[in-house]
């Protein structure tokens, strides 16, 4: 499983775009980049997943360059309710395990 | 759909006591998982199951046992609780293995004194 590195914390303000970059230098060919969000006192929640290029859904966008050694989660126009911990994971296509690192604690201020 | 539910929500144990945590899912998922999360840390996989009647060890299985007698339920047992097992325990399920989305329960906060 790919070891991922991401910033420990980030602060932002309501209405701004938040970009969280994750490094995964040893990502395997069959690993997918997956992001989960965790609010305090709750279990993680799947946000988005991609293999390469760009993926967008109603919550976020995920940018993965051609070399796949990093990825960027983009949260457009954040609100206070986006304050959470965001985890970047490298997930094997046929594996059974999620490996969570420390995540990035995002604080959205008014 | 209730999704993934966990029982109990909170529990305090004394060292050496035993208990069972229950996880139930109503999504007919084949795969179920137990994780623990220590303060300020990410989740670590304890045990998982790829179907009814199967279990497998995860990253930190020592001190825990599991059973999956019914497809919808996954039980996590602590035979002799230790203070090092103080943590928040999350159950999750997924329809498929691999990169399929995992759905998490609300967690059980366990304190061992």
Distance between the termini of chain B: 36 Å
Structural class of chain A: mainly beta
Largest sheet of chain B: 7 strands, mixed
Give the amount of beta strand of chain A, in percent: over 45%
SSE sequence of chain A, one letter per element: EEEEEEEEE
Give the averaged pLDDT of chain A, no decimals: 91
Shape of chain B: globular
Regions with little confidence, pLDDT below 50 for 5+ residues of chain A: none
Which descriptor suits the 3D outline of chain A? globular
Largest interface: A-B, 23 and 27 residues
The total strand number of chain B stands at 11
Please give the order of strands in the largest beta sheet of chain A: 1-9-8-3-4
So how many helices of chain A?
A: 0
Helical content of chain B stands at under 10%
Name the poorly predicted regions of chain B.
none
Describe this structure in words.
The complex is a heterodimer of chains A (110) and B (113). Chain A is mainly beta. Chain A is 0% helix and 49% strand. Chain A has a 5-stranded mixed beta sheet with strand order 1-9-8-3-4, with no helix packed on it. Chain B is built from no helices and 11 strands. In chain B, the strands form 2 sheets. In chain B, strands 2, 4, 5, 6, 9, 10 and 11 form a 7-stranded mixed beta sheet that branches. Chain B has a 4-stranded antiparallel beta sheet with strand order 1-3-8-7, with no helix packed on it. In chain B, a hairpin with a 5-residue loop joins strand 7 and strand 8 (73-78). The radius of gyration of chain B is 13 Å and the shape is globular. The chains are: A mainly beta (110), B mainly beta (113). Chain A binds chain B through residues 32, 34, 41-46, 49, 87, 91-103, and chain B through 4, 31, 33, 35, 40-45, 48, 50, 56, 58-59, 90, 92, 97-99, 101-107.
């Amino acid at each position: 499983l790919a070891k991922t590195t991401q910033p420990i914390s980030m602060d932002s303000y309501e209405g701004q775009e938040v970009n969280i970059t994750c490094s995964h230098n040893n990502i395997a060919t069959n690993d997918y980049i997956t992001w989960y969000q965790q609010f305090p006192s709750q279990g993680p929640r799947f946000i988005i997943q991609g293999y390469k290029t760009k993926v967008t859904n109603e919550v976020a966008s995920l940018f993965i360059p051609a070399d796949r050694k990093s990825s960027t989660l983009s949260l457009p126009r954040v609100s206070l309710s986006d304050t959470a911990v965001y985890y970047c994971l490298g997930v094997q296509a046929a594996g059974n395990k999620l490996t969570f690192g420390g995540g990035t604690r995002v604080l959205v201020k008014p | 759909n209730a999704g993934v539910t966990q029982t109990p929500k909170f529990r305090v144990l004394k060292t050496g006591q035993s208990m069972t945590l229950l996880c139930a899912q109503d999504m007919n998922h084949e795969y179920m998982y137990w994780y623990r999360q220590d303060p300020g840390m990410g989740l670590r996989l304890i045990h998982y199951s790829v179907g009814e009647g199967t279990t497998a060890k995860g990253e930190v299985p020592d001190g825990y046992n599991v059973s999956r007698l019914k497809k919808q339920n996954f039980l996590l047992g602590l035979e002799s609780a230790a203070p090092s097992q103080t943590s928040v325990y999350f159950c999750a399920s997924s329809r498929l293995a691999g990169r399929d989305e995992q759905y998490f329960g609300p967690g059980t906060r366990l304190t061992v004194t």
